[in-house]
Specification:
By secondary structure, the chain is mainly α. The chain is built from 2 helices and no strands. α1 packs antiparallel against α2.
């Protein structure tokens, strides 16, 4: 996935836009903005607000998903260690059977 370049804008862009919109409304038609109507500005602000809200919801969902994933992996890791420890207790640390469980035999192999 290719990362898109972020445009530069202030953190409080929506707040500034709302203030500008309110100022425009207060002037009741005394301000003419070339190639833009007040309704279009309102629509763009609403659209941006929806996208910001969506991004925040997804950020929270992702954070929760990562937390659940980490908890799940911790449980699996603990169980994996239990299985390996049971194998060591059953077969001994130096048994080659330990390797079948993803462990390493403590037995030194002789080179021939």
């Amino acid at each position: 996935m290719m990362k898109e370049a972020n445009e530069s804008f202030p953190r409080n862009t929506l707040r500034q836009a709302e203030l500008a919109l309110q100022g425009w409304k207060d002037l009741k038609g005394d301000l003419l903005v070339p190639n833009m109507e007040i309704a279009e500005f309102q629509k763009k602000i609403a659209h941006a607000t929806e996208k910001v809200d969506l991004a925040e919801r997804l950020k929270i969902e992702r954070s929760e998903a990562v937390k659940v994933r980490n908890e799940s992996l911790k449980v699996v890791w603990d169980l994996t260690k239990r299985v390996r420890n049971a194998a060591k207790a059953t077969f001994g640390d130096s048994s080659e059977k330990i390797e079948k469980f993803g462990g390493k035999s403590s037995r030194k192999r002789t080179k021939r």
